[in-house]
Amino acid sequence: MKPFNRLTLVYLAALALASCTPGRVPVATETAPSPTAEIRSSPEVQTSAPAATESLPVATPTRARPPEPLSRYSLSATLDYDAHQATVQETISYVNHTGEELSELVLVVEPNRYLGGFILDSLTGKDEIALAGYTLEGVQLRVPLPAGLPPGQSVDLILAYRLLLPNQNAPYGWTERQVNLGDWYPYIPPYRPGEGWLVRDDGPQGEHLAYDPADFQVEMRLARPQDASGRSLVVAASALPQTEGEGYRYRLGAARNFALSISPLYQVQQAAAGPVTVTGYAFPGHPSADQPALQEAAKALQVFGDLFGPYPHDSLSVVEADFLDGMEYDGLIFLSHAFYDFYTGDARNNLTIIAAHEVAHQWWYGLVGNDQALEPWLDEALCTYSELLFYEAVYPDLAGWWRENRIDFHNPQGWVDATIYDYPDFYPYRNAVYLRGALFLVELRTRMGDEAFKAFLRDYLNRFAYRQATTADFFAVLSEHTSEDLSGLVSAYFANQ
User: Fold this and answer.
1) In whole angstroms, what is the distance from residue 135 CA to residue 143 CA?
2) Mean pLDDT value across the chain
3) Burial level of 49, CB count in 10 A (0-12/13-18/19+)?
4) Which tens digits make up the pLDDT trace of 18-48?
């Protein structure tokens, strides 16, 4: 997710003046075209390096592979858009790659945070074998495995449940303009040998969920193809649909999660970033921003693909969000309506900054996972710093502007390795983890030099792709790429290193 920068303060003030409900925009009345009414274009990406630095080396595609076979999530959902509810059949084929025999499985059920929001109708095993003794408390669904699950073996869980979506401006829930399905299904979190399941409490700031990579097969059916006003519903997802008609069917391999967003208002456009199809879903009312949002995301895919390594999927959805700020999912990013509403017409704006940031999460979160609650800097600081790499490659004359607007204006303080529980207020958390984290990486690059620094980033990604990285892993790989004494630098930014 992308906490606000200097420009967002201006946006929030303007929103308060424009609407009696801060952060909301009056509902548009235009009808979005169907998904087939698309405009295709190709982003013109400037990939030259800034004159003051060495040229950027091209990343090698060699990287760690996900464990085989991966666990698989098969989801079949029917959504009643106007009633804000869904019925879901889900089969989880879980493969034990933990190295330990498991006596139970833990599933994270985020929709159960909301009163009456999750109704579990049944939970069975393969061939409808009843599973006894499971419990659902808070967001944890515990399923005993009396026979145990040895390493390398698999087990199937079959769930039937109903979702009643909350009315909220968020990645999960509904508003007058869209339904968002982020973290909408029960899933099995990573397991750390000797520690247990990586399940964290929600915090006042940031994200708290962690995911293992898995294969997804998803079918989304709409109870009715139009909303109550007769407008055709458009579905955005973490993958492109293989079929539409009676239902949208998707496949997404080796991904952390699968998200969807549905609206009758989406204006749909497409662009190409090399072999990747980038699809933009925007509300009407700001046509001058729709193409830039799409194009900046496509440019970022190309820049980060060159710097870090190939993007792992064949599509990316860029969805305008009816909430403030951005949010990342594998194969799908949300960008706040505020970024579109107040687009300035050039690259000195939050639409460009946050598009680059959320696209960077496809590498730092999507490929390289981490404990987002206890070590949020591992994805957020790297994505904030990646914004600078994007500007250097595409808008080199604005790299200094980015530094002044994004970092220096806030005079950030705090420890980079803070957790999401350390700060009750938003801005101190943002300043410490995102902004000071980016400053640490700026100084680290200066100490190491361009070539060594970028080789380190590629090596770190290649080693921990499809895995969960830790701060210790980060510094272990770093030590192999520099002989510099970094102790003073590290102690200035990190409390526990």
Assistant:
1) 7
2) 88
3) middle
4) 223 222 222 222 222 222 222 233 333 332 2
Residue among 126, 129, 188, 134 at smallest CA distance from 156: 126
Number of Cβ atoms within 10 Å of the Cβ of 249? 17
Cβ–Cβ < 8 Å for 300, 271: no
Please name the amino acid found at residue 256: R
Closest to 434 (Cα-Cα) out of 361, 363, 485: 361
Residue 146 has pLDDT above 50, yes or no: yes
Residue 430 pLDDT greater than 50, yes or no: yes
d(CA 19, CA 156): 49
Q: Reduce the DSSP state of residue 462 to 3 states and report it.
A: helix
Q: What are phi and psi of 50, to 5 degrees?
A: -60, 145
Q: What angle do CA 162, 165, 170 make, to 5 degrees?
A: 140
**Count of residues for the chain?**
497
- SS3 (DSSP) at 37: coil
pLDDT value of residue 128: 63
Does 397 fall in a domain? yes
Task: Determine phi and psi for 353, rounding to 5 degrees.
Answer: -60, -50
Does residue 56 fall inside a structural domain?
Answer: yes
pLDDT attached to residue 67: 86
In a domain, 487, yes or no: yes
Report if residue 381 sits inside a domain: yes
Nearest to 385 by CA among 348, 436, 316, 334: 436
What pLDDT sits at residue 62? 56
pLDDT recorded at residue 135: 96
Give the count of domains, the chain: 1
Q: How many CA atoms lie within 13 A of 79 on its CB side?
A: 30
pLDDT over 80 at 287, yes or no: yes
If you ran DSSP here, which 8-state letter would residue 113 be given?
A: G
Decide: 274 and 300 in contact? Cβ < 8 Å: no
Q: Strands of 40-41's sheet, edge to edge?
A: 40-41, 267-273, 276-282, 315-321, 332-336, 327-329
Q: Which residue has the tokens 């970094």?
A: 486
Question: Is the distance from CB of 341 to CB of 323 less than 8 angstroms?
Answer: no
How many C-beta atoms surround the C-beta of residue 265 within 10 A?
24
Instruction: Report the CATH number that the domain containing residue 487 is assigned in CATH.
Output: 1.10.390.10
Task: Give the model confidence (pLDDT) of 47-93 as tens digits.
Answer: 223 333 333 333 344 567 888 999 999 999 999 999 999 999 999 99
DSSP 286-344: -HHHHHHHHHHHHHHHHHHHHHH---SSSEEEEEEESSSS-EEETTEEEEEHHHHHT--
